[in-house]
Structure formats: structure tokens, C-alpha cells
Amino acid sequence: MKRKLVIVLSLISAVLVIVLIVVLATINVKKDTGPTPEYVFFYAENQTANYPTTLGADYFSELVYEKTGGRIKILVKYDAELGSESEVIKQMRYGGIAFARVSLSQLAEIIPDMNILQMPYLYSSSEHMWRVLDGEIGDEYLNKTESYGIKGLSWYDAGARNFYSIRPIRKLEDIEGMNIRVQESAMMADMVSALGAVPSKIVYSEVYSAIEQGMVDGAENNWPSYESMRHYIVAPYYTVDEHTRVPELQICSSAIWNQLSEEDKSIIADCARESALYERKLWAEREKSSRQIAEKSGITVIELSLEEKKRFRDAMTEVYVKYCGEQMDELERIMDY
């Protein structure tokens, strides 16, 4: 009797699976009512579905599909479904993945010249950074990617990183001796050391408990990260020094790019720039809402004066020499642009 019951249940399960497959297939057919695309490409994104960069990628995909009359369809895969950023870059260099959004810090690992664009206190403001990246300097650095099997398309925003701590940082002397959590980055550790503080490399997910337990006196990150991880509860002083702005890039595999017609290249480049403006708008909104949430909790926001920011920047002399080397003239060019 039990064996017959198992057989019956198995048959019912099989029927349900078949029905589900048919339903899903029907939904997909109805959904794809447009023209059959000539090209279907994957786009790699490691953030969540509702993150500004992912929404920017979705917008880019929609624009390309619309402006090519459905000839090119780009499927955005988020949540690192296609691998980490470093893995994605490797695959793109051989045409395994067509498009992606990656951090400049990841590209700088294989294109050393790009490292200068993420130097601490390089940009005086957001407006300064976009003046640089949307101008001739930004184009020059997008073009540098072509020697590495990648086509740079446009610049995305990732905000500015600031210090937050258990006690206020209003001037350079205030940070001296503080134990500050930093990313797994030699340059970030050197930056903190140059300011007179002690860098501590701690896993991102453990920052809250590290501050709470007194292992570190603070950390550094952008507003969305500070708010979403609820670090404002244990580190109620947020100092807006904007020490680093690490932009992100939309890129295309050169192996794929070189197969496209000049018309399609032009369309994709235009769509990439348009989606970048859209993503920047979303990022600004995200930063604003995150700041408001943190401020409502009662934190203290400290805006450094221009004079004090200059003191922080002047402390970076040895860091600039170490990481820029023969690019010191280029560093000055960017700072004065």
C-alpha cells in the first residue's frame, strides 16, 4: 500500500512539474513579443537588484534595445551571478562576458596607470571629479583600457568615503592615535597612517562589533554603507572629509566590441553615457536618503573647512610619491583641472 502511495505521489509531482514548465514557457513567449534580436549579451553586476549601479545597468539595457530596434538585447545579471568583479574582468578580456560595471580599484589591479584616479584627497568636490572624468582626462583614461582587451564606455558614481568615529574629528590633530578600520588596501592603510592614525584591516561585516567592543575607534565609508550597516549607532560622529572618491566604469569586452558595426558602437556608447547620468542621479538620491536616516538617529555631522581639508591633503605627500611615482605631473594636472 505504501509503495502504491509513493508511486501515485511521484506521478502527481511529475505532472505538476510539467504543468509548471508549460506555464513558465507560455509566460516567456508572451513576454518576448518583440523582434528576435541579432545579438544577446550578458552584463555582469555584483550589486543587488535595487542598487543604483544595477538600476543604471537596467536603463542602459533598455536604451540599447530601444535604439537598435530590438536587434541587441542585453541581459543584466546582478548579485555577482557571473562572478566577482576580478573574475568578470578576466572573462571579459577573452570575450566570455560582453558588458559589466566594475570599480576603478579592480581595474587598477591590471591597469596600473588608472591608480592615480583614486588617490586620497585628489578631488576637491563631486563637481571637480565629474569635470575631470567627463572631460579630456576622463576620455584618456577610458581609452587606456583598450590595450588590455576592454573598451571603457562611461563613468558611474560610487560616492565619497568619509571618516566616522566614537569621538569627533574636527581637525587633523583629532585623528592622531585613533585606531581606524580600513579596507584590504595598502594605499588606504598608508593614507590613515599619514594622518597619524593606526590602520586596522577588519572584515566589513565585523566593523559594527569591532567599534562596539572598542577594538577600533572608527572606520571610513560612504553614507549608504554607514546607514545600511547601522554603524551610526556605535560611531555617532561622521566627518565629511571626502578623502577618496573611487568612480566606477561601464566596460565592454574588446572581443565583442570589435564585432559590432560602427553604427551599433555609436549607439552603445551614447546609451552608456546616458545611463551614467541616470545612475549618478540615483546615487545622489540614495546618499541623501541615507544621510537623512542617519541624522534622524541623532548623529553629529562635521563638515571640515577648506583650510582643514588642505591640511589633510598636505599630509598625503609621501603617499602621492609612493603610489604615483613618475606621474606626479599628472597628479597636479588632475588636481588643478
Explain this structure.
This protein has 337 residues and is of the alpha/beta class. It folds into two domains: 32-157 and 246-285, D-Maltodextrin-Binding Protein, domain 2; 160-245 and 289-335, Bacterial extracellular solute-binding protein, family 7 (D-Maltodextrin-Binding Protein, domain 2). The protein is 49% helix and 18% strand. It is built from 15 helices and eleven strands. It has helices spanning 2-31, 52-67, 85-92, 104-107, 126-133, 136-144, 172-175, 186-194, 207-212, 223-228, 254-257, 262-296, 306-314, 317-324, 328-335; strands at 39-44, 72-77, 99-103, 150-156, 160-165, 179-182, 198-201, 218-221, 237-245, 248-253, 300-303. The strands form three sheets. It has a five-stranded mixed sheet. A four-stranded mixed sheet has the order 8-5-9-11. Strand 6 (179-182), helix 8 (186-194) and strand 7 form a beta-alpha-beta unit. Helix 2 (52-67) runs antiparallel to helix 12 (262-296). The longest helix has 35 residues, at 262-296. The chain is globular, with a radius of gyration of 24 Å. The model is unreliable at 1-31 (pLDDT under 50).
CATH homologous superfamily heading of the largest domain: Bacterial extracellular solute-binding protein, family 7
Number of strands: 11
Structural class: alpha/beta
Q: Label the overall shape.
A: globular
Count the helices. How many? 15
Q: And the CATH topology of the largest domain?
A: D-Maltodextrin-Binding Protein, domain 2
The main sheet orders its strands as 2-1-3-10-4
Q: Portion of residues in helices?
A: 40-55%
Spatial gap, N to C terminus: 83 Å
- How many domains? The number is 2
CATH class annotation of the largest domain: Alpha Beta
Determine the mean pLDDT: 89
Segments where pLDDT lies below 50 for 5+ residues? Answer: 1-31
Radius of gyration: 24 Å
Order of helices and strands: HEHEHEHHHEEHEHEHEHEEHHEHHH
CATH architecture of the largest domain: 3-Layer(aba) Sandwich
Estimate the strand proportion: 15-25%
- What about the largest sheet? 5 strands, mixed
